Amino acid sequence: MSKKANKTPEQQQYEQLEQKHELKRPVLKNCIRAFWVGGLICVVGQAITYFYIYFFNFTEQTAGNPTVATMIFISMLLTGFGVYDRLGQFGGAGSAVPVTGFGNAVISAAIEHRTEGFVLGVGGNMFKLAGSVILFGVFSAFVVALIKTLLIIWGVI
Amino acid sequence: MKKRLLSFIAFSLILLSGCSGDGKVTDSDLALLKTTHPPAVLIDKNTKGNLDLVENIEHDVEKMKELYDVAVVKSNGDTLVAYKVKHLQRFHMKKIEKKMTKMLEEKYPDENFIVSSDYKIFIEAVELQEKMKDPDFTDKKAKKKLDKIIKLKKEMT
To answer: Going by C-beta distance under 8 Å and a sequence separation of 6 or more, which residues neighbour residue A26?
Structure first.
């Protein structure tokens, strides 16, 4: 049975009324904003990569790790200062998808639960959102590494 | 809010620009931004055969149309070839490296080549070439620097 058939006439009427008043989401505008904000974050990341290549002993291959750490640190600071919230409001997915969104997720959860105490509040809830990123990140890295190891053992690559 | 934003931008600009050093800008400082075309470097017995060999290697590599800047450093053990790949060709980085290694090994079977498309390696090679102009910079020091570059190239993480 379809969903619509389950609804009473009042419910259907209400649905029509709701659809009439519902605001349309500006999808294109959101996409453009996300593109720009995400792109700008990546430009900053690229600049930091070049900074590490120029002034430290990092190659293009190895500069990625400190760059990611720095970007997360900057976004954590900006979240604390309340700047990243505004950026997130404006850029949407553009500010959440890059690695800076991870820093934001950690610190915003920590701030939110600060009133519940340092151990059970901040400590217990800090990774509420970001925990899944770490879990699935580590797990998928393990699976990919396993596949690569097997392929090397079998002599495919 | 606007004032805060402006002061934040001004602060970050000051932080990013920093001091400009002693005002002397060398090619290695700009190697990331522009084409430098550094001459080939020889850290070995200064014979005509050796000089011709490095020059030939550089010419052969420069002939590849995917590249736009090449630096060659030859010591008595290894020959370092650092190059920059044209932006859109960077998708085929691995293929280009394979092609170049094959070409070089076929043409110069007696040499031990270390090939790298890494910007850092290129910058270091240009820096070495600049230092070689200084008469106080001995061959021993140059060899040590080349070994450092090769070690850097082999670093994975």
So the answer is: none
Residue owning tokens 């960077």:
B90
Q: Chain A interface residues facing chain B, Cβ-Cβ under 8 Å? A: 50, 53-54, 57-63, 65, 83
Which one of B32, B123, B155 has the shortest CB-CB distance to A62? Answer: B155
The predicted-structure confidence for B107-118, as pLDDT tens digits, reads as follows 998 889 999 999
- Rounded to the nearest 10 degrees, the angle between the axes of helix A83-91 and helix A100-112 is 120
Q: Taken in order A113, A118, A119, A122, is the CA torsion positive or negative?
A: positive
Strand partners, B80: B73, B114
| Residues in chain B within 8 Å Cβ distance of A51 | none
In sequence order, what are the beta bridge partners of B113? B79
Q: pTM for the full model?
A: 0.80
H helix runs in A56-125, sequence order:
64-81, 83-91, 93-96, 100-112, 124-125
Q: Please state the rounded mean pLDDT for residues A11-30.
A: 92
> pLDDT band at residue B81, thresholds of 50, 70 and 90?
very high
Contact A57 B118 (CB under 8 A): no
